[in-house]
């Protein structure tokens, strides 16, 4: 794993992001960056504001302040679909798949980018579905080829979570924001998922990872940002985060968590 200083090969730059629910501040002027080729972790206790940060960043919640740039271009005011089309996509904690579609078909739905001219052409001259190559690539990265023609109800929980990740990858993003992708996975599934996640930068996909699995986050991330009560309390390499007293107190549960 390789740390990269701020400003070098930057993909995502978030400055003073603020999200509120009425009078409650969920995300309080949080800043972070993700460089090209990095896997960055975002951790914190339950209710710290992690998912609200992802929702505000991607436009699923309105931002009350702050600025977001992706590949040097502002994302401020863009709709969620426009953010995804720029190459910044996300997964969700709850994996909602189309139960009447196979794994392959679920991925094709995500990969397709319908345009009026394409739909009119296909009415007259049906063609190969758009995104087939992207779906094959996503299946390969998530090792889903063996279950491509199964339906979601035939999959294990871990396989369903992988389909959720593959659905994001089928859009060929530059950066994927993963919200609790390892939730519910057993130890073996989590280790296998970590290996797949760590391989993504080699395929041109950087990662911002939100997860409660500390073993996963500490083992795969180049840098980690820690938030508590909506504020950044620490940022650094996994080794620095393990030794940070504020993190130990807020998240890891005491000094013994270092051992």
TrEMBL record:
TM region(s), chain numbering: none
Q: Does the keyword Nucleotide-binding apply?
A: yes
Which top-level group of life is the source organism from?
A: Bacteria
Q: Which UniProt keywords apply?
A: ATP-binding, Nucleotide-binding, Transport
Spell out the Pfam families in the cross-references.
ABC_tran, BCA_ABC_TP_C
ABC transporter domain segment(s): 12-254
Q: Name one GO molecular function term.
A: ATP binding
Q: Which GO terms describe its cellular component?
A: plasma membrane
Spell out the InterPro entries in the cross-references.
AAA+_ATPase, ABC_AA/LPS_Transport, ABC_transporter-like_ATP-bd, ABC_transporter-like_CS, BCA_ABC_TP_C, P-loop_NTPase
Q: Which residues form the signal peptide?
A: none
This protein is called: ABC transporter ATP-binding protein
Organism of provenance = Nocardioides mangrovicus
């Amino acid at each position: 794993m390789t740390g990269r200083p701020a400003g070098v090969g930057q993909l995502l730059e978030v400055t003073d992001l603020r999200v509120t629910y009425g009078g409650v501040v969920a995300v309080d002027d949080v800043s972070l960056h993700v460089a090209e080729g990095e896997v960055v972790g975002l951790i914190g206790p339950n209710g710290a504001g992690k998912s609200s940060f992802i929702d505000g960043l991607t436009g699923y919640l309105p931002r009350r302040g702050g600025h977001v740039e992706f590949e040097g271009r502002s994302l401020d005011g863009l709709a969620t679909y426009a953010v995804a089309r720029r190459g910044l996509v996300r997964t969700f904690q709850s994996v909602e798949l189309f139960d009447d579609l196979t794994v392959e078909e679920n991925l094709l739905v995500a990969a397709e980018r319908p345009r009026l001219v394409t739909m009119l052409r296909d009415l007259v001259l049906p063609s190969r579905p758009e995104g087939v190559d992207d779906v094959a690539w996503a299946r390969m990265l998530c090792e889903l080829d063996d279950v491509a023609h199964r339906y979601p109800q035939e999959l294990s929980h871990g396989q369903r979570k992988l389909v959720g990740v593959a659905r994001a990858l089928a859009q060929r993003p530059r950066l994927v924001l993963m919200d609790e992708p390892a939730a519910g996975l057993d130890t073996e599934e989590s280790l296998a998922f970590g290996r797949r996640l760590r391989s993504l930068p080699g395929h041109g996909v950087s990662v911002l990872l939100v997860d409660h699995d500390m073993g996963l986050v500490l083992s795969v991330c180049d840098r980690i940002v820690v938030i508590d009560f909506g504020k950044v309390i620490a940022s650094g390499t996994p080794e620095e985060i393990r030794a940070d007293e504020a993190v130990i107190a807020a998240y890891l549960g005491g000094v013994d968590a270092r051992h």
